[in-house]
Structure formats: C-alpha cells, structure tokens
Amino acid sequence: MFQSLIARSASLLPQSALGHLGWLRGALGATIGIGVAALFTQLLLGANTAGLPWLVAPLGASAVLVFAVPASPLAQPWSVIGGNLISAAIGIGFGLGLGLGSAALAASLAVGTAIAVMIYARCLHPPGGACALLCALGASTQGWDFGHLWPILANVLALSFVGWFYNNLTGHQWPHHVELPKSGNTSAPVGHTRRDIEEVLTDWNEVLDVDVDDLDAFYQALERHVAKRRARPR
C-alpha cells in the first residue's frame, strides 16, 4: 500500500536550480516575499506590533503557490487576497461566536465554511483553510478579534505585490494569462473547442489544478508539434 501511495504521488518535471523554471527562482521569490511582508506589516502596525502578529503562518503556504506554481488558478491574486482574508474573517467570527469552550467546534466549522465560501467567491486558496483554523483558535483561546485582520491584510497585500513584481520580472506573467493562438496561425487544424475541454473535465468529475485556457493552449501546441513531426522527412 505504501509503495502504491508513492507511485501515485503527484510530481513536477525535474527542475534544475537555474533557468526560467529553476527551483531557485521560486525559493528566492518566496524569501523576498516573506521578508517584505514582515517588514511592511511591522511598519504598518507601529506601536501595535506587540499586540498583533506581524506574520501569520499560512502566508508561508501562500508563498509556495505564488512563487513556485504561479500559473496555478489557486495562486492568483484574488485567490491569495480574497481566500486568506475571507477565511480569516470566518474563523474569527466562529471563534468569537462560540467562545472558549468550543474551540474545536469553532475551528472545524470555520474551515468547512471557509472552503464553501471560497469556492462560491471563486477564490479557492488552500492556505485560506489554515487562516480559518488559525483565526478560529486565536479568537477562541487567545482573545483575537476582527482587529487581527489588519496584519493579515498587510501580509497578503505585501506578498501579492512582491509576487506581481518578481514573477513578471522573471518571465512568469502574474496574474497568469495564456495567449491562445488564433486558429488561422496554426499549422494543424484544431479539432476541439474550449467547450469540448470543459465537457471532458465534467465527465471526469475531477478538479485539476490547471486553467482551462492552459489546457487549450497545451493541446493546440501538441497538435502543431505532432503535425511538424509527421511532416519531417524520414
């Protein structure tokens, strides 16, 4: 069973340290992003630094998405900002509403509700679940209130600004947007439409961490590549 789990684990293509897809690019970006978020939040809070957190742990998970997989739908600006803030507010709301004796219930309800609201608001972001949990426990056991949203807001805004600047500087358009080639410029006829891709994904009944336009662009590029390979003299 353990071997089966390993065999079916998701994996990225091999990455070198340098280059457009190098892991060093993402690691350096996350380092800068977290550092800037910490400094910006400390400056913003000023004398209130002692009473409020100047960094929240879910920001580390957000940094992984923003800088390591910037093309992911889960890593886009609205997901980072909206997903974290909405979830944090939900967590604080449940924590305050249910009180000290119900910390576990507040945490569980906060995470479940945050997932539903993020999906509805189209800002699904995995670290948002951590924000909901953190804030529910903070409000239940540490006296957190809605004032604690300020450092979280500062954190996600600073990280998003660095993500925008750094990703675009290093050749990764962020917010991510793929330019689909016009059918007249392709070397092979496109035998599918965007709707076809959506219907296949619906038939699969699975959620893939990739944008439909990226799948469309990939398939068109694959068709052109196959057409070129077949046209080569043997």
Summarize the structure.
The protein is mostly helical and about 230 residues long. Helix content is about 65%, strand content about 0%. The mean pLDDT is about 85.
Structure characterization notes:
The chain is globular, with a radius of gyration of 21 Å. The protein has helices spanning 2-7, 23-45, 58-68, 77-98, 103-120, 126-141, 149-169, 194-204, 212-231. With 234 residues, it is mainly alpha-helical.
- Give the biggest sheet: none
**How many helices does DSSP assign?**
9
User: How many E strands?
Assistant: 0
What does the average pLDDT come to?
87
**What is the first-to-last residue Cα distance?**
46 Å
H/E series: HHHHHHHHH
* CA-atom Rg in angstroms: 21 Å
- Fraction of residues in β-strands: under 5%
Structural class, by secondary structure, is mainly alpha
Shape: globular
Q: Helicity range of the residues?
A: 55-70%
Q: Which stretches are low in confidence, meaning pLDDT under 50 for 5 or more residues running?
A: none
Outline the fold blueprint.
Layout: H1 2-7, H2 23-45, H3 58-68, H4 77-98, H5 103-120, H6 126-141, H7 149-169, H8 194-204, H9 212-231
Helix pairs in contact: 2-3, 2-7, 3-6, 3-7, 4-5, 4-6, 4-7, 5-6
Attribute tags:
234 residues; mainly alpha; 63% helix
